[in-house]
Design a protein that fits this description.
This protein has about 650 residues and is α/β, with parallel strands linked by helices. The protein is built from 20 helices and 30 strands. The chain starts with about 30 loop residues before the first helix and ends in a 12-residue tail after the last helix. The structure holds adenosine-5'-monophosphate-propyl ester.
Length: about 650
């Protein structure tokens, strides 16, 4: 199928197939196609259409990425090597180049007319708002970078950041990057156990938090959670606390210092040189749930990562100078790292950031923000769409959403019903939806439409430029049309993770051993006869709850840390809004009585240890769990039983 749009297309409407079984295509508006960044690049490269460009870019991926690395970002010292495969799968990109992501995000912007362009419009559910120009953001980052230096933070150190969705989270991340330190952001919705294990693994001596954050009109007690986590992580020497809520929090003398007091000191000079670093210098680590044990600290680097993020945002979301971008994710997740903190700044865009719930005080809050700031490109998750759909069309319909030109979706498969609602009610049949498949590991979009792609609801369509994705069977052979298989990436890409922090073996074992020499994503997928990808979901013990990635092992260990629990198993079952919900099976210790109160207590316990997002939907008290002869819990069997499906091959089940 061609993506040549010379033929007339039906704007935002179905193709006239006249055949019910024919695939349903939504064609993008002609004007959008013709003016798109990707079409301009295709024309410049002499391709008849974007699909021809895409095929060229996959075959010549090194040439393509080298071109992007030259166009999208500036280097202190240009690279001469594009890809170094000598230590594969520890790939290195542009490794003899010298760069810093903050140079491209801020320093170069303030040298142009963008100096006084608005970089960030921030608003909280409490009604307060702030605006930062590039110059203002640049100066804040410089000041805080000087503060960090004064606290003894050096190139290569790890700084843990545990903040709500406020401008200071961006400032803190950029300040770390500026001086060559790695940030390790822990999502503000996580709790004691999650924070503590991440601090411990990163060995951060400095931690940045706030007295609290706001969600649904309530205060999230970040400082109290931090205090508790630090009791078990003696490595932390300094805690910098942003005053956000103003409510009373205990401050420990000699350890805790207010951010605003530090920023008022002479050490917080607004001048700070950005540290040139090698392209492969680590930029950050971000923990993500894996199949077993503790979360993995995935490492991303300065060079390849920024090339990937800037390129994907430029071509997929078609960012132009006058766009107002709004990614409604949290900066604490990879979506926020790539498409709130770094991508928009590198492209010199104006963006909106909102702290709070989409339904506070009413379910029109988001649409109200779109209208007030004239948001042009909006990016969110299927779970949010499904949640807002429940309140009906009247809420979005009260607002003028005509500024929107593109929409996006990320985090889990979007069900066609939610897709159509988003397209019709929010996008007024005029805004193509970029359903972007990617992962914390991939750093940037991997399978995604672009503004020229005819869309099918629920499909991420085709791989991004320069990305060689495929669906294969367990032997690594290509799966047939519409046949389920493993989603793999066949060629390295610049924004890929480099390793698991302090655990290179785990990097190899997790991603590169299932099928030799191919990156396995941990997802199952299929490709239809148009070559479109349909991601089905995780094949490992990772559960996607409201788009958040949680490991069954982490939920189970939180349960087992309760004094009444002997053993526990967690599985994900379908949920109308969350996509999946966590259901658990618990064996109590001898002599402990099962009761509803105990079930509630266990749910609250998991919430306290891990964070509200990990709270199980149900606790089932059982006396045994299906296990393999080697003692592994067969979650697959629990899931089939819960869904009333055949239990499959039980030959390895313990007798
Ligand atoms: O299962 C896929 C799902 O989210 C996983 C990655 O989760 P995480 O590392 O938390 O990153 C989320 C934000 C990039 C994937 O392995 N996933 C993500 N986006 C999509 C998706 N599944 C289907 N369609 C998507 N667009």
């Amino acid at each position: 199928m061609s993506e040549n749009h010379a033929a007339p297309s039906t704007v935002g409407q179905l193709s006239a197939h006249g055949d019910e079984s024919a695939p349903e295509f939504y064609h993008p508006p002609e004007e959008l196609v013709n003016n798109s960044n990707i079409m301009a690049y295709a024309r410049e490269k002499g391709f008849a259409d974007v699909e021809a460009l895409r095929q060229w870019s996959v075959e010549n991926y090194q040439e393509f990425w080298a071109d992007m690395a030259t166009r999208m970002v500036d280097w202190y010292q240009p690279f001469t090597t594009v890809l170094d495969e000598s230590a594969a799968p520890f790939y290195q990109w542009f490794n003899d180049g010298s760069i810093n992501i903050v140079h491209n995000a801020l320093d170069r912007q303030v040298k142009t007319w963008r100096k006084n362009k608005v970089a960030l419009i921030w608003e909280s559910e409490q009604g307060d708002n702030k605006t930062f120009t590039y110059w203002q953001l640049y100066k804040r980052v410089n000041k805080f970078a000087n503060v960090l230096k004064a606290m003894g933070v050096k190139n290569g150190d790890r700084v843990t950041i545990y903040l709500p969705r406020i401008p200071e989270i961006m400032i803190a991340m950029l300040a770390c990057a500026k001086i060559g330190a790695m940030h390790s952001v822990v999502y503000g919705g996580f709790s004691v156990e999650a924070l503590q294990t991440r601090i411990q693994d990163a060995q951060s001596r400095v931690l940045i938090t706030a007295d609290g954050g706001f969600l649904n009109g309530k205060i999230v007690e970040l400082k109290k959670i931090t205090d508790e986590a630090i009791k078990h992580s003696p490595v932390v020497e300094t805690v910098i606390v942003v005053k956000r809520t103003g409510h009373d929090v205990p401050m420990e003398q000699g350890r805790d210092i207010w951010y605003h007091e530090l920023m008022a000191l002479p050490i917080a000079s607004p001048k700070c040189e950005t540290e040139p670093v090698g392209a492969e210098h680590p930029l950050y680590m971000l923990y993500t749930s894996g199949t077993t044990g503790t979360p993995k600290g995935l490492v991303h680097t300065h060079g390849g990562y920024q090339v990937g993020v800037a390129t994907t945002m430029h071509f997929t979301f078609d960012i132009k100078e006058d766009d107002v971008w709004w990614c409604a994710a949290d900066p604490g997740w990879v979506t926020g790292h790539s498409y709130i903190v770094y991508g928009p700044l590198i492209l010199g865009a104006t963006q909106v950031m909102y702290e709070g719930a989409p339904t506070f005080p009413y379910p029109n809050r988001w649409w109200n923000i779109v209208e007030r700031y004239g948001v042009t490109v909006f990016y969110t998750a299927p779970t949010a769409i499904r949640g807002l759909m429940r309140f009906g069309e009247a809420w979005p319909s009260r607002h003028d959403l005509s500024s929107l030109r593109l929409l996006g979706s990320v985090g889990e498969p979007i069900n066609p019903e939610a897709w159509r609602w988003y397209h019709r009610v929010v996008g007024k049949n005029n805004c193509p939806i970029m359903d972007t498949w990617w992962q914390t590991e991939t750093g940037a979009f991997m399978i995604t439409p672009n503004p020229t792609t005819p869309l099918k609801p629920g499909s991420g369509t085709r791989p991004f430029l320069g990305i060689d994705a495929a669906v294969v069977n367990e032997q690594g052979e290509p799966a047939g049309d519409d046949e389920d298989g493993l989603l793999v990436i066949k060629k390295p890409w610049p924004a890929m993770l480099r390793t698991v922090y302090n655990n290179p073996d785990r990097y190899i074992e997790q991603y590169w051993t299932k099928i030799p020499n191919l990156y396995t994503a941990g997802d199952s997928a299929r490709q239809d006869d148009d070559g479109y990808f349909w991601v089905i979901g995780r094949i490992d013990d990772v559960i996607k709850v409201s788009g958040y990635r949680l490991g069954t092992a982490e939920v189970e260990s939180a349960l087992v840390s309760h004094h009444d629990v002997a053993e526990a198993a967690a599985i994900g079952l379908p949920h109308e809004v969350k996509g999946n919900a966590i259901h658990t099976f618990v064996i109590l210790k001898n002599g402990v009585e099962a009761s509803e109160d105990l079930a509630d207590e266990l749910i609250a316990h998991v919430g306290k240890m891990m964070g509200p997002i990990a709270k199980p939907e149900a606790i089932n008290f059982v006396t045994s769990l299906p296990k393999t002869r080697s003692g592994k819990i067969m979650r697959r069997v629990l899931k089939s039983r819960a869904l009333g499906l055949p239990e499959g091959d039980l030959s390895t089940l313990e007798a």
